[in-house]
Batch of 2 targets.
Target 1
Amino acid sequence: MKGLVARFLYLTRRWEEPLTAYVFITPSALLFLVFVFIPAFSGLYLSFTSWDGIGASQFIGIQNYVELYEKPLFWKVLGNTLYYTFAVVLLQMSVAFILALALNSGRLRLKGVFRTAYFLPVLTSTVAASVIWRWLFSEEGFLGYAINLTGLCVPGGWLADPRFAMPALILMSGWRWAGYLMVIYLAGLQAIPSQLYDASAIDGAGAWAQFRFITWPMLSFTTFFIFVTSIIGSFQVFDQIYVMTGGGPLDATNCMGYYLYENAFKYFRMGYANAIGVITAVIILILTIIQFKIGARYRDFAS
Amino acid sequence: MSASSDQTVVHKILLYAGLVIGAILFLLPFFWMISTSLKPPDEIYVLPPKWIPSRLMWENYSKALSAAPFGRFILNTFFVAATVIIGQLIVAVPAGYAFARLRFPGKEILFMIFLSTMMIPGQVLMIPLYILIKNFGWLDSFYALIVPPLASAFNIFILRQFFTTIPFELEDAARIDGCGRIGVVLRIILPLCKPVVSTIIVFTFMWQWNNFFWPLIVISSKELHVVQIGLSYFSSAHGTEVSLLMVASLIVILPVIIVFALAQRTFIQGIALGGMKM
């Protein structure tokens, strides 16, 4: 018996490695097939149909896309999303960058305390943060009160005013994630060899020159990476909108993610909602490609 | 010499001052949350807003806890998170090892395909996934929450990166000593990859804890709700009882803060390492 098994193993030895590999990979592959690729293609197909989710779906070609193209609300939603995305990313990254620089400077006592303080908002959930900030922005909340004090008297608080609802959301999201980006920047800063700074100081470089020729270029890859992933993430904003504003007031804060949710689960227009999803994916893809094209210049510079 | 050291002192003071002010600003919402959670109802809507409540209404906490089954929500979320973490590790560790160590036809292409799943924005998959889950009959069940997240290329990616740093010699030594391939994985590789595994555990826990959109659309029964949905419903049902809302928010935030306090280094390392999974 043992001899047979040994012989069998010897004969199959050549197949052992690839076979093991395939066995190891198959569960993941199956999961990706079922939960990523199949939904991706069926979503694409569904975007060309009209379906309420219950009966049969009806193939209607590009009608959903035409409807979106002709609908002013869609363009408003898209504009809102782009406004939100770029404002939030810029806000988050600048705050995070400044904080990281500040925390990284020389021998700073209480560095860990500061880092924890700025990181704490990251540990909240977006829903909890939204609940808290919704209260803060109300007129009786601390922020609402402070705003009214400055003379900018907005009845109902910022979240009730179409002009200020989006800035409110942007502010909250910036608070929520700045600490996270700060940690990434800190890691990037700490990876810069201090010899570079020492050598440049010997050559007479001042703080600004050091920043311009050492710090900034060495961080360019990190910055690029953060920028790309933040844009992709922010473009799909949803939780805050659902909890804080419900898309309003007057669709001032309605963004692609929320618009998709509304159409799918409130109005039961599955095909139409899928078209929104497809467009979201395409726009993100285009934005990412643009960023890579622009980033290519800077990335070569860093290496 | 004294001129520049004066400048340095001034710089330091400005730096500290700026950082302290910034930290206070960042922490204000937390302070406000805690303060409001302990306020008696008549002090909430007072203008100018009152900082410290005149008496600490600990009753708010028992009121909030009895108004909604937060204990249940938290338990559900922990259960889902734990199951997802274990499932993800079971699925991703072998795959990461295979891509890092084994040779087989189609290795590069398969890896590219796996990675490509990370580039598909989650939102575009929400509705088709929902329909798929519905067809499986998994709507309103824990399966809907547990199984889809197992398809995570990010874990495979970082595990593979990590495995490639383990020297071949270790494995060879084990093989010479008679260890089978599976034995190598279990006895040599696994104990070594604690840092990566800790990162995965922390990130997956945070992701599952904060998960909102997906549970919102697939779960409808109150008993199965996860903690963020619970908070959101609580917020709609008790929107005017702000102190209870703040208590609820605190309850929802606390476990993550505890996890962070226990695993701070892993957190920070993980973010620096992966930086992506938000």
Target 2
Amino acid sequence: MDDDKECVSQVLQGNKQAYGYLIDKYRDKVHAIMIRMLNQSQDAQDLTQECFIKAYNSLHSFDSERKFSSWLYRIAVNLCITNQQTKQRQPYLYGDLELVSLPDTPSPECMYLKKEFATELHFLIDRLPESYKIVLLLRYVDDLTYQEMSQVLDIPVNLVQVRLYRARQKLREYFSKTKEGGELHEVR
Amino acid sequence: MKCAKIQLLLTRYIDQDVTMEERMGVETHILHCPACKELVDIMNQETAVLHHVLTTPPLPDHFTIDILDKLEPFPIPKDATVVQSMTRSARRKSATRLIGKRAAVVSAALLVTLATGSFVSPTFAEYISSFITRIGGEWGVKLAAEQGFSTAVNQKVTSNGYTFRVKDIVADPTRLVATFTIEDENGEILPDLYIPNYGVNQLFITDTDGNRLSKTNSFTRGDDFADFVFDLNDPPDQVVVHFQIKEFGSKDPKSVDWNLSAAVDLSASKKVTQNLPIEEIYVSPQGIRFHLKNILYAPSATRLSIETTLTEKAKNRYIEQAEQIAGIELDEETLNRYGATLFSYHLENEKGEHVAVSEEGRFNPKKSGLIYHTLVKADPGVEAWHGSFVPFSTKEQMYWVLDSLNVVEPAQFSMEFEPAELAQHPVSKTYQGNTYTVVGMEKQKDPQTNDLVTAIRLEGTSSVFEFNRWALLDASGKEYKVEIDYANSEFVDQRFVQTLLVSDLPEDLTKLKLVMKTIRNKYTDVKWRVPLPQPK
């Protein structure tokens, strides 16, 4: 994390290339948030770009006592919120993500961990309420701690925990429904 | 720990958000409790799956470069070298201080001295890039903006469901550009952003005491914004831009009541502006005197001041010519029109390569390297022009070269027609390579006064953009005053439609004669090249 702060100070002194290091480091993580929250990959790339541009332009106001990553994710989350308010949601195209492979799981009870359910899982995650989705993303893509997530989302740490718990619970619920069959296909 | 308690902790334990004590509690428990151990295993697997499923394909390689290309480096602070030579920990500390200092400096430059307060526009960077294509070239206003000579305004006012929003203002001693949008009730930007700068609307700049400084302005369109450009001439440090708008829209004017003022600080940009005298004079073969006065190097543009005057000799020649136009009384207004000059010039370097071009005083925002050319004041016989262009490389010696001029001169041309026959037989004639056709004549209400007037409609082609002035004579030689109805006259490419209004024309006149009083003629027999002083 000291790397990040070093970078920021370099950038502020006129070394624009140093910002490239930060973009390289966080671009996929920011993009992962955008792509899930927006359901349209072209918008996600644009919004990812916008996130970094916005961060750059506000760099002078970045408090070096904080983590750069949390600050960046905060900007990303706010962009999502603003974006959702102005745009209509498009149906998500899963083509890109089917290539993601799942690890082999030893316990047969957890059906939803099996590879064939990858697509369904994407779809189910999308069906989650925004507040649950974002905590999953921040925790499992961006590896933020509860404390950091609390800062990024501006909610108490307890609420972070509750949402994560409920998000996982919801996913299990969805999967038990699909095991019984029918619901998934109807929604489409 | 009991199972129930463990299960409450599990999410946090899995996410490693537990205290040392809590962790030990869980790990000790699952050593002896297979049920809870299995739960932990499942949840760990869930986490792994989530990690995988939520991961998205990596972005293309050029993604980072694409972003970097859109960013401008922060200015290098004066004490940068001092910071770099410090030890790592000390450097971090002073870097922190520098961040704080920079925050103050940048916010001072970007913060608006508005009475009502404001905030920095979030899409400022995009605005800078949109400026690139607007004012005559790549870097002019962008440079000014990044040096802190721009003011993020984002002030708005709503009336009748329409919102007028001033986004930001870029200004230096040569000009002030105010960018705005008009939105409907849903926040959608309207396609028609035209706001006329005359009539019921007042758009002007004052000093802080309220004295008017500049009214001359122009309107240019971008994709989803529009600009007002005000010329400035030796302005004070602080100016205020006033928008008092009662009507907008180019086709169906809409009524509103928008009042908005924005204060702009020019002091920083004035400090870096240099005004260098040139004082070169040339008289063209037609008797037009050109005075290249000075060159102003300002942050957003380099501006030349050029004055054109009619020599006494040329003026007398025109009067003589005008008196030869049969049967017409020469009025003051027409006499003053003679000698009005538009000219084309370009800038070139030592090798003669054209660096920037001005085409007869017309500004084309689509072409880069063009000169933004405006008339500053026009006393009879004297016209003062500013030609602004974006800063070029001042390392090379530049030359100002006059290419051509066109002048309003007396004409020797008339057209006879019979009003009753016009519908069947419109009358056409050519003169100086242009064609003129009298198409129709009818009585109508003057749009300004509501009186009954006679409207005569002309169509034709003309290689030079100018609405000719005419006089109207009846068969007995009586002259009637002719006004040009600019609202119903237009030039598209080299074709024109001109509507002339005549008051108090008797009903029963069978034969009329239109006499042309002014025509604009083009001349290319000029030869003048002036070296431009370079800034210090």
